[in-house]
Structure formats: structure tokens, C-alpha cells
From TrEMBL:
It comes from the Bacteria. Residues 168-258 form the Peptidase M20 dimerisation domain. PANTHER family: PEPTIDASE M20 (PTHR30575), XAA-ARG DIPEPTIDASE (PTHR30575:SF0). This is Peptidase M20 domain-containing protein 2. Belongs to the peptidase M20A family. It holds the Pfam family Peptidase_M20. InterPro entries: Amidohydrolase (IPR017439), Bact_exopeptidase_dim_dom (IPR036264), Peptidase_M20 (IPR002933), Peptidase_M20/M20A_hydrolases (IPR052030), Peptidase_M20_dimer (IPR011650), Xaa-Arg_dipeptidase (IPR017144).
């Protein structure tokens, strides 16, 4: 039996437990940095499979690193498991967690034979916290030569795109007054936000097709007959690259400042986390994944590259991919018209189609790790990059 056959056989044996994990996560959604059940269940599953599990790493209670083997080539599978506020696992992180765990368990079956160290890096708060950035800065990825994961979507797509993104809170402070009797005594913080939103709307004419600005109002006033004096909003700005993001964000910040100037209020703007970087996929690893996925029955439709670029989100995985060879293809759930960040998409993550995707995605990821170990030129390229990921990231920033 060759290594890829060992991988497939190990996935077959683990599949039922992986499906149970995915469904348990779906039934128990937890937001970023609060994924206590999810991280514990993943850690327990990997521990039972023979992994050494370090929990609460990087001063993050719901982060973990699980390791198996001691070979010189270190391959990590990234697990995400946080949910979206209000709509649960509508981004399919339950599928990601199960797929990455399964890939690692399968790769561990051939780790000694192939000279591998296999890891699962459990990364909290992808959606709204930048957990991977914190773990990257604090050394969790040090020594890793390649990071692999697959993200569920409507279709299988290898060449996925993510945008650079910044995420911040805007707060306006004005002065309350009776809205009818003495409106002239008030400073209207809601007017400030309205002015900012109009300014952003006008800015859109000068924005690139890959630029995005979107947000929600967290606090919009207390009563209709009281001049709103305290308004908060949460916004995201996205662009194709970190360089483009820097320029766009400066313009957007000016729009928020314009609201304060026009209304006579004061403004505070606070970032939630460092910016997410655009994703850089390793072309050789991605081609191997696509071949391995095709071999187990996945199909990749021919799509217009412009459509793929149009359907771009953002992830802190991008920051990892700037310093370590990485891939994050899309694992199709045949969910159209449901798409990520819709409640209907969450329901698609616990269907027979999704359960099969976990098995096939895990098999393809593990087989890609096998290829990385067995192709001499690729193995040499990856291991030549042995360095401190944290230090490299700090230099890149």
C-alpha cells in the first residue's frame, strides 16, 4: 500500500468521527475567542489520534497546536472554528475544522515513513478578531514549512482570492438636547455618521472594482425627541492588496472625519486588529491539491477569473500566506443559491454533500502533504525556508 492509499484508508476510518465533530460544532456555534467547546473537542479528537496537543497557546484560551511526528518537513493544517454573530456557522468553519483535523490524522499515518512533522494549528476568531495574526506574531507558526486548508463554498475553486481588509470602530460624541424645544443646543452625532456615509457613497465613484466599504450602526440614539449625542458604528474597508488598502482606508477615514467637522462633534476611530493581508497561494502546492482533489472525485468548473475575483472575502490566513507557502482552495458544497454568510449556507454545512466534502477535502489535503514530502525539488524548496515566521512577519510589516 503506497502512502496515498494509507491516507485514504485512514480517512475512511476517521470519517464518522469527523462528521460528528462538524455537526456538533454546527449545533454549538461559538463566536471568536469564545470557542471553548470547539477547541476542546478538536483537541480531544486529535489527542485520541496520537497527537500531542498544547492548549491555550499564545495566551489565547481557545487556540491550540497539535503535533505528530518529528520529521524535518513540517506541514500544518489550519483549523478555524468560530461562528458568525446571529447566523452561526454560515461561513462553514465547522467543515474547515473537521477537514483539517481529518487531513492531519491521515497524514500522521505516514509521517514517520515520509519524514514529516504534522501539525494542526487551531486558530480562533477568523471572522472578527485576527486570531491567526496574533498566533503568527507570537510564534505558533515558527518552523512550519507549509500551511494547508480548504474553505467551504458553493463550488470547488482552486484559485480563490481574498482581499486585504481593515476593521475598525467609529464613535461620535456630540451633545444631547430636546429635539423640538431646544434643538439648537444639541450637537447631533447621528448627523455626523450620516454625513460620513454620504461622503463614502460619493467616494464610490472613485473606488476600484475590487474596493469595498461596508459597516453597521451599533448605537444610533436613545429616543426620537433627544438629539443623538453618542453614536457608534463598526466598519470594514477592503482592497485587492495591503498597499491599495492603505490608500483607500485613508480616504474613508477622511469621510468619517468630515462628518465630525460638519456636525461639530468629536470622533474616535479604533482598529480591532491589524489589517488582514490579501492571500498568496503557493502555485505548486495548489496544483497538487487540485490534482489530488480531482482524483478523489472533486470537480472544478471553468470559471471566468473576473467572477472569482468578484467573489472575494478576506481572511487572516492571508497574513500567514505572506511568510509561509500556503493554500486555501474552496471546497464546494453544491449550495447555490445559498452563499457564505447566509443562514441558508449554514444549513448546507451539515448535509450529506458536506459530509462527503469533508472526507474528500481531507484526503486531498493529506495527499498534498504526501506530495510535498515525496517530490524532492518541492521538499527542498519548502525546507529551505526554515525560519522564524514571527520574525519574518514582523519584518514584512
Amino acid at each position: 500500500m503506497n502512502p496515498k492509499q494509507h491516507v485514504a484508508e485512514r480517512i475512511d476510518r476517521a470519517h464518522a468521527s469527523l462528521v460528528r465533530l462538524s455537526h456538533a460544532l454546527y449545533e454549538n456555534p461559538e463566536p471568536g475567542f469564545e470557542e471553548h467547546k470547539a477547541s476542546a473537542w478538536l483537541g480531544d479528537l486529535l489527542s485520541e489520534a496520537g497527537f500531542t496537543v498544547e492548549r491555550g497557546v499564545c495566551d489565547l484560551p481557545t487556540a491550540f497546536v497539535a503535533s505528530y511526528g518529528s520529521g524535518p518537513l513540517e506541514v500544518a493544517f489550519d483549523a478555524e472554528y468560530d461562528c458568525l454573530p446571529g447566523i452561526g456557522h454560515a461561513c462553514g468553519h465547522n467543515v474547515i475544522a473537521a477537514t483539517s483535523a481529518g487531513a492531519a490524522i491521515a497524514a500522521a499515518a505516514v509521517a514517520d515513513e515520509l519524514g514529516l512533522t504534522v501539525k494542526v494549528i487551531g486558530t480562533p476568531a477568523q471572522e472578527l478578531g485576527g486570531g491567526k495574526i496574533l498566533m503568527l506574531e507570537r510564534g505558533a507558526f515558527d518552523g512550519v514549512h507549509a500551511v494547508l486548508m480548504a474553505h467551504p463554498g458553493p463550488l470547488d475553486v482552486a484559485e480563490t482570492v481574498t482581499l486585504a481588509m481593515s476593521h475598525f470602530d467609529v464613535e461620535y460624541h456630540g451633545r444631547e438636547s430636546h429635539a423640538s424645544m431646544f434643538p439648537e443646543n444639541g450637537l447631533n452625532a447621528l448627523d455626523a455618521l450620516t454625513t460620513a456615509q454620504v461622503s463614502i457613497g460619493l467616494l464610490r465613484q472613485q473606488m476600484r472594482s475590487t474596493d469595498r466599504v461596508h459597516g453597521v450602526v451599533r448605537q444610533g440614539g436613545d429616543a426620537p425627541h433627544v438629539i443623538p449625542h453618542h453614536i457608534t458604528a463598526e466598519y470594514m474597508v477592503r482592497a485587492a492588496t495591503l498597499d491599495e488598502l492603505q490608500g483607500l482606508e485613508a480616504r474613508v477615514r477622511d469621510c468619517f472625519q468630515a462628518g465630525a467637522l460638519a456636525s461639530g462633534t468629536s470622533m474616535e476611530l479604533r482598529s480591532y486588529h491589524p489589517p488582514y493581508a490579501e492571500q498568496r497561494q503557493d502555485a505548486e502546492l495548489l496544483a497538487l491539491y487540485k490534482a489530488n482533489a480531482t482524483a478523489v472525485g472533486r470537480t472544478f468548473p471553468e470559471l471566468d477569473p473576473a467572477l472569482v475575483r468578484r467573489a472575494a472575502g478576506a481572511s487572516d490566513f492571508g497574513n500567514v500566506s505572506h511568510v509561509i507557502p500556503a493554500i486555501q482552495p474552496s471546497l464546494g458544497l453544491d449550495s447555490f443559491p445559498a452563499v457564505p454568510h447566509q443562514a441558508d449556507f449554514a444549513a448546507h454545512t451539515v448535509t450529506p454533500v458536506a459530509d462527503r466534502a469533508i472526507k474528500e477535502g481531507a484526503t486531498a489535503l493529506a495527499a498534498t502533504a504526501v506530495d510535498a514530502a515525496l517530490i524532492p525539488a518541492l521538499r527542498d524548496r519548502l525546507t529551505a525556508g526554515s525560519f522564524s515566521a514571527a520574525a519574518a512577519y514582523g519584518t514584512a510589516r
